[in-house]
Design goal:
homodimer, 343 residues, alpha/beta, Rossmann fold, 3 domains, six-stranded parallel β-sheet, four-stranded parallel β-sheet, elongated, DNA-binding
Chain lengths: 343, 343
DNA sequence: CAAAATCTTTCCAACGTTGTAATCTGCAGG
DNA sequence: CCTGCAGATTACAACGTTGGAAAGATTTTG
């Protein structure tokens, strides 16, 4: 049987409540009493029962992070950043994978697990703007990602349009003019794909170039294999291009591999830039230029906002929106000179 | 205020306990009563309070997975496999990152969070055999990894020696004889590094080749950057070799990049094989041959064993050891012909 | 048709903790 | 020496659920 407060109280010759008071740093405890209790806790190896505390106080100090897929490097790195931020503040994180499916996302959101956590960080993928109403759950929540804007909750996101525009300009500055928009979702307006395509268009427009629809390559799923497959089709079609704005790093890496197999040199024949700055981009051959979307800042801000909601510190505050800063990370895949040795 | 069983009971005109009985599928409930209760649950949107259930029943249906680092692809894929296996059985997973530090691992293992979970899957890195006694905690546990054997708990692992031997033989069969053992930890006997080095030696021995100590390259940490750095030093030293047995995929990918930068062709000049079969190996240039260590089987078995311990179904069973099967995955980096188009 | 056996539902207590309010201590002030 | 008051401690109830056993309802049996 586990040690409870009762045992500690007995050992320290005080009431159970005094033990509780010591543990929770209540005021008005005599120094000598506190000491006695702490000694007893130490001696018995007491550990609070978090279920009981959760029941009584309504707090579990657990938050939930809902993401599409942990195997996706972007989300693994996001999860790491969130867990680190949460851990600093004494919270644990439960990760739930939605697989990006709308049904599963709603199921999680309305499942009984929500009652076990103090709040949710929800990285949407399957839902869309019309579902904004469905995410109004009693549990405090902060939304991550690009699928829903101006919903009933706080929202932390990245500067998709601006960053994608900067990525495109990065290639334009290097004299490339026939740029693929790689990973588009044609009918989407506000998802990551829609916004990044918009950034691409703005950059072209600003440079006085026409947007050519055949250069926007639809790739529904954003894994390496999808990037590889899509690039194979592009090459087979004979489409002429000298640069690729890939909408995430995995797509870029898959595409890069296929281009190299086909004998194209990067960056000499085709320059390519990705999006997300996953660890792998620093070690590919060539290393991949990309956008650092401010993952750390996103995680820190999201956790901080969520905890404010949980504490009620932001009770009166209306739903907030926060956009993290981004950076263009220039590497070999867009180098002006042929690639040489790198980090 | 949230809906409780009391509200449901009232709505269905039964006692609270009957509601509980319905929810927990107790025998001997009249069909009509069950129906009435279910309707009330549905109508009110009742969700059980998991803290209360946890307190009363001693079960939380949460298990904890302790791993060194989620950003490491191997562990991200392991975590995914574990979460999937757990989810099938109605459990959620809390991931705790230890950073591989001994102190942090012990801290987690003896921290109050352990009281909130039913069991632990513990992927050791910082502890070692001498610590076997320290991991004897009251919470059911299954050990993963290679640092501790014959401890007081169940243990699920991979066939490190056999797999490493098979990897080495894979290169030997292709006529390579000057093989680096890349990622060794010289003074280690039973960690992954020690076991994989042992497999390497056995393969050499079986082939009648001498083990040459200068070909065992020490790399303490197993990230891409460490592999890159170590390979730079090898090349600078002028050491002659025609094959690399890398002790994990990240090391291999880092090393491969550096060799290519130096003008070495893979596999023509140097053949290389990794270990872990992370997703990335299918998309590198060239694709990387590797060992599939049976990650899925490891996750499934570990979760199953843990749940048996939690249920008490394995009460009398002494500590078990399980080794998952492995497979050599042959790709371009060890191809006999020069690389061509791949998947 | 009563008694026994079975099925179904309910009552009560308990899990370990914390909020509220009450009690008890010691000490200053009158 | 009593009153008042602040500081320190405690008693009690409650959070929402489930295990155990009692109670009530129904069916079977002799």
């Amino acid at each position: 049987m586990a040690i409870t407060m009762r045992d500690v109280a007995q050992a320290a010759d005080v009431s159970i409540k005094t033990v509780s008071n010591v543990i929770n740093d209540h005021p008005n405890i005599k120094a000598e009493t506190r000491e006695r209790v702490l000694v007893a806790i130490e001696k018995l190896g007491y550990q609070p029962n978090l279920s009981a505390r959760g029941l009584r106080s309504g707090r579990t100090d657990v938050i939930s992070l809902i993401i599409p897929d942990l195997k996706n490097a972007y989300f693994a790195e996001l999860a790491d950043a969130v867990m680190t931020a949460a851990s600093k503040r004494g919270k644990v994180v439960i990760i739930e994978q939605s697989g990006g499916s709308r049904a599963r996302e709603l199921e999680i959101l309305h499942g009984p697990r929500m009652r076990m956590v103090d709040g949710v960080l929800y990285s949407v993928l399957g839902l869309s703007q019309e579902d904004a109403g469905l995410i109004d759950i009693p549990t405090p929540m902060v939304l991550l990602g690009e699928r829903i804007f101006h919903g009933p909750t706080d929202h932390v996101t990245m500067q998709n349009i601006e960053a994608s525009q900067a990525a495109t300009e990065h290639l334009l500055q290097r004299g490339r003019t026939k740029l693929l928009a790689f990973g588009a979702h044609r009918n989407e307006v506000i998802g990551s794909a829609g916004l990044r395509l918009e950034g691409y268009r703005r950059a072209l427009q600003k440079a006085g170039l026409d947007y050519r629809d055949e250069l926007a390559i639809d790739v529904q799923s954003w894994h390496r294999s999808d990037g590889a497959q899509a690039m194979r089709e592009v090459l087979a079609s004979g489409l002429d291009f000298d640069g690729v704005v890939a909408f995430n790093d995995s797509l870029a890496l898959g595409a890069m591999r296929v281009m190299q197999d086909a004998g194209l040199r990067i960056p000499e024949d085709v320059a390519i830039i990705g999006f997300d700055d996953i660890d792998e981009t620093r070690y590919s051959l060539p290393t991949l230029s990309t956008i650092d979307p401010g993952r750390q800042e996103i995680a820190e801000t999201a956790v901080a906002m969520l905890l404010e909601r949980i504490d009620g510190a932001a009770e009166a505050t209306p739903a907030r929106e926060f956009e993290a800063g981004f950076k263009v990370v220039s590497r070999e895949s867009t180098a002006i000179q042929p690639a040489e040795d790198s980090a």
